[in-house]
Amino acid sequence: MLLSQIFAVLGVASVTTGSLGCASRSVGEGDTLSDADGSSSESGPSTSESESSGDASNTSDDGSKWDIAPFPDDPDGRVIDCDPPLTLISDPKFVQPPECMVEFQQSASICFYPPDGTSCETHPYDNDCLLDAYGCGFIDVGNEVVCGPFTLDDGACCYVVVGDCAVGRPFMVDGVARLAAVERGRGWALAAQRIPSLIPSLTPSLISSLISSMVGLDAADRAALAQLWSRAGQAEHASVASFARFSLQLAALGAPARLLAASGQAASDELRHALICFELASAYAGAALQPGALDVRASLPALDPVAIAVSVASEGCVAETVSAALLTHARDRCQVPAVREQLTRMIAEERRHVVLAWEALAWMLDRGDARMRAAVANVFARPERHVGIGATSSLPHDPSRVAAHGYLAANERRELASAALTELVRPCAAVLCSSPAGLSAA
User: Fold this and answer.
1) Where is this region: Disordered (predicted)?
2) pTM for this one?
3) CA dist., res. 424 & res. 12, Å (int)
């Protein structure tokens, strides 16, 4: 599929750039990205039976697997590299006690049967192993073991681990997506109101409409929505830093003005998105919420062109493409006009960010060497490793009522993310990394 067709699916303009190609090299079990999708370069992506069913484990026509990493609450028997290996229970009959909840942080139940000769009380695994069992999108390690062990009737051991979850364009430092904490207050948002272009269009009438739409929500639903939107705000806030760093990287590489301008605009967009998310979170919470300070130490490593290209491929081309698709589905399910209006605006801007990522990567590859093309090909060989599916709430809530306010269940997002990889990321990567004629024709 041509890039112009891919972006037509996203509803945005196509990339125009010179000819290039990723290295034709092994990217899995004998496949190469240069020929993985050659039969469909002029037509839309084929959809297999497993893909159309929404299964999170998709098999393409060439036999390659595109599996979304299991979400923490549904680990599907993941095996963690501990000593002895820790096998998580896919469906633990465990309800996290209220005292285990940590405000504004994602939590996961880490449940397993103790190895022979051990018991829950003997703590067969240390905390580092339990933290490694946590996973959410880009983040594959938890922050803290807050509760446990709890021994279930069948002898299983359960712990509660809290951590973060990022989606879209994360602010990655040493493999961890950094987020600011959530604080009480409105000083951050009030300061931004001095800049007219950043004021969210959440007018008093829209806020009033939003509040009136909460009539069908109980206190638990509102608390969950406040938590979800505040977590989304954390991710959008971190994206501001991510694009600021990207602008520095582009400048260091001698990028053209159009890419620098687009990156600067994207940072401004993300700030507006963060404002919108925190305004929504505050409305649902009935209290003013804002982000705290973001740790940016050691966030600008050596400006290696290969490392920059890899980050653009993983964080931009994969993560942002999937994020834009998820946001679109959330908007389509949303039944609250005030929220739907904000999501529509955010989607239009996020799609521009998707175009920027693919266009910037094309520009880099056009000037890069074989080492860069091989590194980028490795990213696209297993794009599921770079997908974030966004925040979930550890608080009890009604999924259908929450979906009506703009948030989809984690399992639904996993299925949609898998489809986005198959229908958007994979064919776009195949064009980018195939014959020079494929991209120049886009």
Assistant:
1) 24-77
2) 0.72
3) 13
